[in-house]
Structures are given as structure tokens and as C-alpha cells.
């Protein structure tokens, strides 16, 4: 009996030693592989390894920076309480994460919210759109070679609306010309799927960091006359939407944490009435609807659509097909178009130029952004401003005092 127990014990011990040896061998191989991969990642200079150094937030909403309340004459309001005129504008809610940057001291700036790294001092050269893409792709700056052209949503995320002219924090970002002029227009990588007066079927979007606008420019123009500047960026994609149709007339975006009205109600109104309408809405049983700020509303533009798209699959308002947009009524159709869509108010105010009252409010054009002749001049998805009511001062191009409303609320 004693001999049998001893033999069994030895057999068990032998099996344990064998299993331990096998496990050690497997773990050793795994550790060796990990070391090799880590070494490759550290020493590899390609764009993938560089991008992995940045943690990109899919679509964290960034505040506009506007903290002052205004009426429709541009006068500053000390305070507005719920139920009063002009309650519900941008500065009422101060939604979005406060802008936060780190100057890396090497010619780059990191956005602490989005995780994107930006070229701090852009080239002073004027580029065509294609040349700007090439410039970014070939740029080697501060040890990185994975620079690229930013998307509109990325480029617009650094726009600062506290005062304007420029709409940019120049404590961190240099202007290309070094001067505050209307020519501070920067390319984005969004090529326009429609046609414009200026660019025909070869137009691309950009952001003017002095006037604050988004519009489409001729993509083939170059040099001092028609070329634009470019500010390179690096990092993964920021500005992607993740929509869910809730089946109750609302659309949720998991990446931004915002819930949107799926439809507008087909009524156009001035800015004061738009604010009041949003505040009083109880769509789908929610009572905390509001007018979106300019960054929030630009964040749901889908630049793969336009009423003037050359490809039939892309014809429509510049928004995901989950949403609907009212067609303009016949009495305000521009230049005979019968398939155009409207502008939509935001709660963010604007001056016409530096030092002037904030008579204007920003809008997003989901249909054609027209000139005074009703032609698609700025492109569907353009972001501009217009006077807040019919008695206000005239703006640029065709004035529209009455626009649609797309309701928004925060999910959490």
C-alpha cells in the first residue's frame, strides 16, 4: 500500500513538472513576441504608429466659447430668465467642453478634448485643394510624418465664438498671413459633391478663421487670387456620428451624447421665435429641448449630400437620410428651384464684423447656400449668419429672416 501511494505521488509530481515546463515555454514565447511588437511600434515611423500615440475622442462636443447673452438688436443682456424673450440661446446653456489646448513647444498644439494634434504655424503659401492635400501628406514636423488635411468637423472644432475676428484662439494658433483679414481661409478635406457658381463641379469646403464661415471654394484655383491656406492635423478620425432612430420622432447620436428631432415642423420663424419654440417643445415626452449652438448643428451636416449633386445617389439635403428636411415653400424658392431646402437657426450670435453689435445669428444651410441671385454659391452644408429679424440690418447675399429649427437635447 505504501509503495502504491509513493508511485502515484511520483507520477502526479512528474505530470505537474511537465505541465509547468510547457506553460513556461508558452508564456516565454508570448512574452518574446510582445517584446518584438513593442520594439517595432516604438521604432516604426509610419503613420499608424504615430497615430496610436494620440487618444481621439470620437465626437466630444466642444463649446463655442460664447458666454454673452444678446437680444435681436445685438444689445448685451445682463441676464435672461426662463420664460423671457431670448432665453435658450448659446450663452444660456454653455453646452460642450470648454476649449483646452497644450502648446507642445515644438510647433504643434494638442487639443486636450479631441486628442488631435495641430500644426501651430501654418504655411503662408496659397494652395489649390489638391496641392494642399499633397502639402499635408508630405509634411514632416516635430518628428511626425503622418500629417493630413483636417475634415470640416475637425477644423471647425477649434473655432472660437466668444468675440470673432478672428474666430480662433491666437494664443495657441497662428494665422497664416499674420494679419486679421477675410483671406484667412483654410482648406478642409471635404470635396463638394454639388456644383457652385464659383467652383462649378470642382469645389471644396474650407473654414474662414477670421469671419467664422464655412463655405465651398473653387478647388482648382491657386496662388494669391484663389488659393487657400491649410493647417495640418494628425490623429484618428474625430467627428463621426453614431445615430439610432428611436422610433418616436427622435434620433440619438451615441458619439456626441445628443438627441435630435428627426423632423422640423415645416414652419419658418425669426430668431427670437425660434428660441421660444425650442424652449416650449415637448417632442416625444421631453421638455428640455433647445436650439442647438453652431458647433452642435454643424456636427450633423453630412457633406456627401447636396441638392445640386452630380450623382443622383447624393441628391438631397446635406444631412443623413435618417433625418428629414422641409422643402422651401414656393414663395421663397430661389432662382426657380423646386427641390431646395432651408437654413436652420442656431443659438449662437454674431457681429457682421469686428466691433459691431451682435445683430446676427449663425445658421447652417442644409440646402443651397445662395447668393443674392439665388444661386448655389457657398454650398449645401455652409455655415453663415444672417440678421435675426426682419427689422434688423441687411447681411450678405440673400437675407433670410425666417428659418427652420432642428431641436436638440442632451441625452444625459
From TrEMBL:
Pfam families attached to this UniProt entry: Lcl_C
Domain of life: Bacteria
InterPro entries cross-referenced by the UniProt entry: Lcl_C (IPR011460)
Domain Lcl C-terminal, residue spans: 107-234, 249-375
Name used for this protein in its record: DUF1566 domain-containing protein
Amino acid at each position: 500500500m505504501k509503495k502504491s501511494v509513493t508511485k502515484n505521488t511520483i507520477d502526479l509530481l512528474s505530470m505537474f513538472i511537465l505541465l509547468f515546463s510547457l506553460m513556461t515555454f508558452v508564456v516565454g514565447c508570448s512574452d518574446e513576441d510582445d517584446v518584438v511588437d513593442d520594439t517595432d511600434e516604438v521604432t516604426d515611423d509610419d503613420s499608424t504608429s504615430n497615430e496610436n500615440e494620440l487618444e481621439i475622442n470620437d465626437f466630444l462636443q466642444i463649446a463655442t466659447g460664447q458666454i454673452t447673452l444678446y437680444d435681436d438688436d445685438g444689445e448685451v443682456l445682463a441676464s435672461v430668465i426662463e420664460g423671457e424673450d431670448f432665453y435658450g440661446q448659446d450663452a444660456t446653456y454653455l453646452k460642450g467642453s470648454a476649449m483646452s489646448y497644450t502648446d507642445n513647444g515644438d510647433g504643434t498644439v494638442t487639443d486636450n478634448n479631441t486628442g488631435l494634434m495641430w500644426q501651430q504655424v501654418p504655411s503662408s503659401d496659397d494652395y489649390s485643394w489638391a496641392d494642399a492635400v499633397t502639402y499635408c501628406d508630405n509634411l514632416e514636423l516635430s518628428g511626425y510624418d503622418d500629417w493630413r488635411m483636417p475634415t470640416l468637423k475637425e477644423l471647425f472644432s477649434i473655432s472660437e465664438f466668444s468675440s470673432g475676428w478672428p474666430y480662433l484662439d491666437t494664443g495657441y494658433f497662428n494665422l497664416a498671413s499674420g494679419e486679421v483679414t477675410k483671406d484667412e481661409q483654410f482648406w478642409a478635406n471635404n470635396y463638394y459633391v454639388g456644383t457652385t457658381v464659383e467652383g462649378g463641379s470642382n469645389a471644396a469646403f474650407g473654414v474662414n478663421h477670421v469671419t467664422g464661415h464655412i463655405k465651398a471654394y473653387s478647388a482648382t484655383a491657386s496662388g494669391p487670387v484663389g488659393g487657400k491656406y491649410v493647417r495640418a492635423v494628425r490623429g484618428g478620425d474625430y467627428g463621426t456620428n453614431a445615430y439610432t432612430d428611436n422610433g418616436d420622432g427622435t434620433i440619438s447620436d451615441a458619439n456626441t451624447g445628443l438627441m435630435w428631432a428627426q423632423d422640423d415642423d415645416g414652419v419658418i420663424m425669426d430668431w427670437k421665435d425660434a428660441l421660444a419654440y425650442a424652449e416650449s417643445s415637448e417632442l416625444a415626452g421631453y421638455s428640455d429641448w433647445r436650439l442647438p449652438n453652431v458647433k452642435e448643428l454643424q456636427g450633423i451636416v453630412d457633406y456627401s449630400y447636396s441638392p445640386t449633386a452630380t450623382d443622383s445617389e447624393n441628391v438631397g439635403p446635406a444631412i443623413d437620410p435618417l433625418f428629414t428636411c422641409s422643402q422651401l415653400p414656393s414663395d421663397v424658392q430661389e432662382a426657380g428651384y423646386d427641390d431646395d431646402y432651408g437654413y436652420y437657426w442656431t443659438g449662437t450670435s454674431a457681429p457682421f464684423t469686428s466691433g459691431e453689435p451682435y445683430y446676427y445669428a449663425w445658421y447652417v444651410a442644409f440646402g443651397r447656400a445662395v447668393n443674392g441671385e439665388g444661386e448655389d454659391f457657398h454650398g449645401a452644408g455652409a455655415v453663415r449668419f444672417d440678421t435675426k429679424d426682419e427689422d434688423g440690418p441687411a447681411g450678405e447675399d440673400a437675407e433670410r429672416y425666417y428659418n427652420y429649427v432642428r431641436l436638440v437635447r442632451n441625452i444625459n
